[in-house]
UniProtKB/TrEMBL annotation:
GO molecular function, one term: metal ion binding
Annotated keywords: Copper, Metal-binding, Signal
InterPro entries registered for this protein in UniProt: Di-copper_centre_dom_sf, Tyrosinase/Hemocyanin, Tyrosinase_Cu-bd
Domain of life: Eukaryota
Residues of the Tyrosinase copper-binding domain: 302-313
PROSITE patterns per record: TYROSINASE_2
Protein name as it appears in the record: Tyrosinase copper-binding domain-containing protein
Signal peptide range in chain numbering: 1-17
The organism of origin for this protein: Lasiosphaeria miniovina
Amino acid sequence: MKLITLLVLCLPLLGLASDQHASVDPEVQAAKDVLQLQKQYQDNLRASIRRRRTVCNPKNLLHRREWGSLSEPEREDYVNAVHCLANKTGQTSQTDIPGARTRYDDFVGCHLQQSPFVHADGLFLSYHRHFVRLYENALRTECGYQGAQSYWDWGLTYEDPRNATVFDGSPWSLGSNGLYVPDRDPVTINVFGQNLTFQPATGGGCVASGPFTPDKYVIHLGPIAGSPQGPQGGLGYNPRCLTRDLDPAFSRDTHPTNVSWELACADVACFNQLLDAPGGIHTSGHFQVGTITLDVLVSPSDPIFWLHHAQIDRLYPIWQGQDLRTRLNQVYGTVTTANIPPSENATLDTTISFGVLDSPKAIRDVLSTVDGDNCYIYE
Ligand SMILES: *[C@@H]1O[C@H](CO)[C@@H](O)[C@H](O)[C@H]1NC(C)=O
Ligand SMILES: *[C@@H]1O[C@H](CO)[C@@H](O)[C@H](O)[C@H]1NC(C)=O
Ligand SMILES: *[C@@H]1O[C@H](CO)[C@@H](O)[C@H](O)[C@H]1NC(C)=O
Ligand SMILES: *[C@@H]1O[C@H](CO)[C@@H](O)[C@H](O)[C@H]1NC(C)=O
Ligand SMILES: *[C@@H]1O[C@H](CO)[C@@H](O)[C@H](O)[C@H]1NC(C)=O
C-alpha cells in the first residue's frame, strides 16, 4: 500500500485521537503529571538512602505536607509555634536592625540583610532552602512543634487564591485575606531593580479573621521597597498589622501547567531562570498575596512566606529527584541579586551567610534534602 493511502486511511483515526486529547483539561493533566514526578522523586530519594542506618534514613525523614492535608490539630500546632517565635526575644543587634525585637524578627532580619545576594541568582535556591530549614528547626526546637514545615500548593487554587485552605480565616489557618479597602491607588514597588506597579485587588487592609488579626499578630519592620518607607529606611521599629490583598490575576502564572513546564527543564540554568523570572512561579506566589509579601526584603513578615517557599523548595527536589546524580551537583547564576552589580558565578564552594541564625553554609552542603542538616521529603 502506498504511504499516501495509508495516511488517508489513518486520518479519521488521527482526528479522533486529537479530539479526545483536546477534551482533557491541560491543567488536570499537568497536575497529574506533577504528582507522577513527585512519586518518581520519592522513590528515587528513598532508594538512595535505603541502606542507611544512621544520620538521615528512611525512618527519620520529616514529611513535609500541603497545608490542606494537615489535620486541624496539626495546623493549630503549627500556628501556635509561629506565635511562640513571634513572642520570644530575638538576638539581632539593635545597631544592625533597630526595629528587630523578636525571634521571628531574627528571620525577617536575616532575609533583609541577605537580600542583595540571594534573589534571581545562583544563591536563590540554596539560601531559601536552608532558610526554610532553619525556620522549621526553630519551630521544632525552640517552640515545641512536633511536625514538619508545611507548604502551600498554589497550583490547587489557581483560579482564585481566596479558595486556598491556608487563607480560610479559621483558627486553623494562616489568617484570611485583608479587609477590602475600596478606592486605593495602585502601588509601585521596586523588585530587583525594576519598578513594578500593582493594581488594588480583593483586600488591602489588615487580615480580617483567624490567628493573625491585629490583636494577635504585629509586624515590626519595613516598608522598604514601597514608599513611604518605614522609619530609618524601613529598619526601624514600625509595629503594625499584617495586611493582604489576594489577587487572582497573579494566579495565571502558578497553574499546574506552569509547574510541569518548570519541571521539564533539562538543567538548573533553565530551572532557576524560569522559576525566578518576572512572571515566574516564585514572584507570582508573592504577587498573589500582595502588600507585605511584595516588600521583598521584609516579605517573611507574613507567615505565608514559609509555606510559599516550602512549595518552591518542594519543586526543586522533585526536579532534582529525576536525575539525582547530575542534579545534586549543579549550580547556575551569580552571587548578586539579578546580577546587580555584576559578580562571579556561584560554585559548589560558594558560602552563604545566615546572620544570627546560623554559621555560613557552602552551597554543596545544602543541595541534598537528605544530607547535612537536611532530612526531609515532600508528600
Ligand atoms: C504572646 O504571649 C501572650 C502571653 O502569653 C499571649 O497572650 C499572646 O497571644 C502571645 N502573642 C503571640 C503573638 O503569640
Ligand atoms: C472559589 O470560590 C468561589 C467562591 O468564593 C467559588 O465560586 C468557586 O467555585 C471556587 N473555585 C474553585 C475552583 O473552587
Ligand atoms: C524606580 O522608581 C524610583 C522612584 O520613583 C526612581 O528613582 C528609579 O529611577 C526608578 N527605577 C527604574 C529602573 O525605573
Ligand atoms: C502559565 O500558564 C498559563 C496557562 O497555561 C499561561 O497562560 C501563562 O502564560 C503561563 N505563564 C508563564 C510565565 O509561562
Ligand atoms: C558564568 O556562567 C555563564 C553561564 O554558564 C558562562 O557563560 C560564563 O562564562 C561564566 N562566567 C565566568 C566568569 O566563568
